[in-house]
Amino acid sequence: MITKLSVNLNKFATLRNSRGGNNPDVVKAAIDAQNFGADGITLHPRPDERHIRYDDVHAIRKVIYTELNIEGNCREQKFIDLVLEIKPHQVTLVPDSTNQLTSNHGWDTNLHKNYLKEMVSTFKAAGIRTSIFIDPDISMIKAAADTGTDRVELYTESFAKNFVNGPDQAIAVYLEAAKMADSLGLALNAGHDLDLLNLAFFSKMIPQLKEVSIGHALICDALYFGFQNTIQMYKRQLAHS
Ligand code: PXP
């Protein structure tokens, strides 16, 4: 199984929003990303719409023929309504607070188990696959399994940070988390701070990984290498089976 690459387009929207107008065009970016080999598109609409706007999600839905993953804060009714209307292939539940710069922690699935259970069943009843963003923590994985979610997305910020000092140590806790997820029948995604230096190692060590969603580093690399080349470079990091 080759891990799928879902390209997060929020940075395109951030750049566009910095000037007004429609440059770069995020709908075109979605079409291009797919044509350039992305296996999916991730959109993260935030309540203040400072990156991807709700309108963008509607427009991009129409041009998606690969996987669409919408991630965000399901405490916002607006987010729930959007996801139920758009019906993406997957919704990733992220515990962002309103003005957070970027996601910086996973759900406490023990504390919020009943709430997450309700959200998971709402989205699954609409035929949408669910994933819960969590830290690589055994107790969080166990509680996530109790919610009935299809997948969990492992928050890889600490892996990326520690990778430079020692890849084996950086990944140890993720290997334990992956083993526990497997044993509970939870499929695995991963994301945050993955890049051309650390991605191949992570995906080689966790070959059962279904999908990575990558935004910041991929778009930064695209400034130097071009969007098409960069997507192919990231895909090559995942193609080692
Ligand atoms: N996964 C989640 C839940 C996120 O919130 C983000 C950032 O929006 C990512 C993955 C992608 O992280 P990065 O932009 O560092 O690649």
Could you describe the 3D structure shown?
- The protein is an alpha/beta fold.
- It has a single domain (4-240), classed as Alpha-Beta Barrel (TIM Barrel).
- Helix content is 46%, strand content 16%.
- Strands 1-2-3-4-5-6-7-8 form an eight-stranded parallel barrel, surrounded by seven helices.
- The radius of gyration is 17 Å and the shape is globular.
Strand order of the largest sheet: 1-2-3-4-5-6-7-8
- What percent of the residues sit in helical stretches (DSSP H or I)? 40-55%
Judged by helices, strands and strand pairing, the structural class is alpha/beta
Could you say how many structural domains there are in total? 1
Distance between the termini: 7 Å
Radius of gyration: 17 Å
Largest sheet: 8 strands, parallel, barrel
The CATH superfamily appears as Aldolase class I
What are the defining features of this structure?
46% helix, 241 residues, globular, alpha/beta, binds pyridoxine-5'-phosphate, 11 helices
